[in-house]
Every structure is written in C-alpha cells, then in structure tokens.
Amino acid sequence: MPANRQPELYAAALLPYTAAATALVLRMVARRKTRMILVWEDYLAIVAFIVGSGFTFISLYKVRWGLGMHLQDINLPEDKIIHHYFLDLWADMWLYTFSVGLSKFVILGFYWRMFSKSYIRQPIRILFACSIGWIIVRVSLICAQCQPINKFWNKDVPGTCPLTPMLSLSGAGIPHFILEVAILLCPLVEIWRLHLTTVKKLAVAAMFTSGVLVCASALGTIIHTVMLDKQAEKDLTWDGIDDQIWAVCDVNLASFATSLPLLRPVFRSFGGIFSGLKSTANPSQAYGNPQSMHTYSNGGPRRSRALKNADSDSIIEFAEAGDYMASSGSAGSSKAYVLHDISPRTSELEAQGVIRVQKETIVDFSKA
Questions:
Q1: Angstrom distance (rounded) from CA 317 to CA 339
Q2: C-alpha dihedral sign at 129, 135, 141, 147
Q3: Collapsing DSSP states into helix, strand and coil, what is residue 323?
Q4: What distance in Å separates the CA atoms of residue 297 and residue 332, rounded to the nearest whole number?
Q5: In terms of Cα–Cα distance, which of 341, 323, 255 is closest to 46?
Q6: Phi, psi of 34 (to 5 degrees)
Q7: CA distances from 147 to 31, 87, 151 (A)
Q8: Helix 236-259 × helix 40-61 angle, to 10°
Q9: CA distances from residue 108 to 84, 125, 255 in whole angstroms, order as listed
Q10: How far from chain centre, in Å, is Cα 17?
Q11: Is 160 helix (H, G, I), strand (E, B) or coil?
Q12: Nearest of 289, 288, 283, 291 to residue 342 by alpha carbon
C-alpha cells in the first residue's frame, strides 16, 4: 500500500479549525453576556476567520491531486500535478497573507482598547505599522515572483520568474515570526502588574499566551520551507505536506488566539479558576493609580447602572454598600476598582448594586 500522509493534513487542518470556529462563536456569546456591542475588531475577526476558512478548504482540496503521497504513487501525469501544486500555492499565499495579517490587527486592536493608559501603547502603534508593512511586502513578493503572473503555475508560458516560491515564502515568514513573538510579549508586562496572586496572573496570562502556538507554527513553516528549498531532488507532493500542515495550523491558531482573551465571561459561567479570580488590590491612596481610586458614598440605597460604549477601554465597578466597605476602615466611604475585561471581580461586588462606568472616571458623591 502506498505511503500516505493525508490523514496528518486532515487532523492538522480540522482540529485547529474547529477550535478557531468555537472560539469565534464564544466570542460573540461573551459579547452578548456582557451586553457589549460589537466593535471593529470583532467584525475583523469574522473576516479573518472567513478568509482562513478558504485557506483551510484549499489545504484539504489539495489531496485531490495527491498531496501527501509520493509523486510516483499518484495516478496523474507529473506535469499536471506540478501545475495543480503551484496554482493552489498561488491561491494559498493570498489567503494566508490576509488571514494571518487581519488576525494581527484584531489582537492589536484589542490591546489598544484594553491598555488605554499604558506605556505599551507606543509599541502597539509600532506593531500596527509593522503588520501593515508585512502585508504590503508579502503582497509585493507574491506579485513579483513571475512575469506574467500565470507563468507561476504554467511553465509553458513565456516569461521570467526572478523569485522562487520558497524564497518569497521563507523571506516573508521570518518577519511574521518576529512580529508574532513581539505581539505575544507586548501585554505580559501589564498583566504581571495586576494585583493578583501568581497563580491567577498565570491563568490570565495563559489567555494571551495562546499566541505561543502561533509562534510555534510560524517557526515550523519557516523551517520546513527552507528544508524543502534546499533539497536537491524534490518530491513536492510528499515533502511539501509539512509546509502545508504548519501553514494551516498557523492560520487557524492565529484566529483562535485572537478570540481567547475575550472568553472570560463564558469561562466564568462554567466555573473554575477564571470564575474565581478576585482582586487582592489595596485601594489606591492617589487618583493617579490607574488600578484603583477612591469614591465617597452617602450610604443611600444601592443603584445599578450600566453605560455601554463600544470604545470603552475599561470597566470600573463601584460598590455602594456600606456594610462591605466598613471592613476597609473607611466608614461612610466606598472604594472603586478599575476592572478591565480580564481583571478580577470579587463575589462581594457582584452580590451588590454597582455602577459600571466605561471610561477612566472619578466619581465623587456625598451627603449634602
């Protein structure tokens, strides 16, 4: 029986794709549970997933001409196989570029909204610019490979191909890997500054560091592309499947990683460590601390009000119950904590009336 690696491709494509689809659906559920309207990065995440779905489909459709089998075991003329290989590769490169590129914008947009008062905003701007540059460079490399363009998959057409496919793929892959590492590291400093126990910091960080999987798949794509390019005798349909496996993982894991940090409201519904996160922060003694601030309560009836703003950078919850705050030693006053989407919530705060403010706001209310 001929050797066949196509089951590996099916597993590498369908498992991450299912995870990405599930994460996207849960992202929408989380938005609904928190009564937050969809913002531009939510719509962009949907577009990136749709483009990634096209890439996944083409990856699986390649088995029709024998990808994953040895060239001599495929019951098709070799020139026809090579034609299909490069034609599908051409479509692959476009879909990969925009699926992965848009996923970068999605996660960076989330960072921008989340860390509105942080010094990491400047690195976020730089990463935005670099991601735009990456897409432009990759598109330029795709278009410059052959003149005319259809010579890329039809070798009988007169023309030239100054760039080899493997050279352009590996050349764009290295900046992609560097960008993914930078995007991965960007929020970790801010997360480590949260007033949480180490275990809970790691739990929150884990929701961001799913990008490690994207970095690993990007690195795997680079390694196998370079290895394939250096082989003297290429068995394209057999050796090329490694590159396809890593690429389809990269696309779907990127989509998965952009939605995971937003799923905490859903995780809280199922219990576990994410639902039990509590703030261990002490109230700030100065309004300049972005993590907490003082407000003054009149001890009156509790109220609950939610202000919904798609451009909000954080959610501030104010507990107005005097009994809860009495233990803080500040009789007649309440403390306000700045809580982002990933920030901890105390069960005491949830059990009482709150005011939810979606801007960095100081509220001062007292008895007349």
A1: 7
A2: negative
A3: helix
A4: 6
A5: 255
A6: -90, 5
A7: 47, 15, 7
A8: 160
A9: 36, 9, 13
A10: 14
A11: strand
A12: 291
- Per-residue pLDDT, averaged over 207-227, amounts to 80
The dihedral formed by the CA atoms of 198, 204, 207 and 212, expressed in degrees to the nearest 10: -30
Q: Which amino acid would we find at residue 41?
A: E
* Phi/psi at 304 (5° precision): -135, 125
User: What is the distance between the alpha carbons of residues 338 and 74, in angstroms, rounded to a whole number?
Assistant: 62
Answer yes or no: are the C-beta atoms of 353 and 321 closer than 8 Å: yes
Domain 6-269 has CATH 1.20.1070: yes
Longest dimension (CA), the chain: 90
Tell me which amino acid residue 333 is.
S
Token look-up 């990269």 returns 250
- Domain spans in the chain, listed from the N-terminal domain onward: 6-269, 292-357
The two three-digit tokens of residue 342, written as one number: 């990933």
How much is the pTM? 0.72
**Cβ–Cβ < 8 Å for 16, 249:** yes
Residue with tokens 């403010």: 357
The residue to which tokens 């990463």 are assigned: 127
Edge-first strand order for the sheet with 292-295 is: 292-295, 334-339, 315-319, 354-357, 305-306
Q: Output b/e per residue, 80-94; b: 16+ Cβ within 10 A.
A: ebbbbbbebbbebbe
Is the pLDDT assigned to residue 130 strictly greater than 90?
yes
Over residues 332-364, the pLDDT tens digits come to 444 343 444 444 344 434 444 455 555 445 555
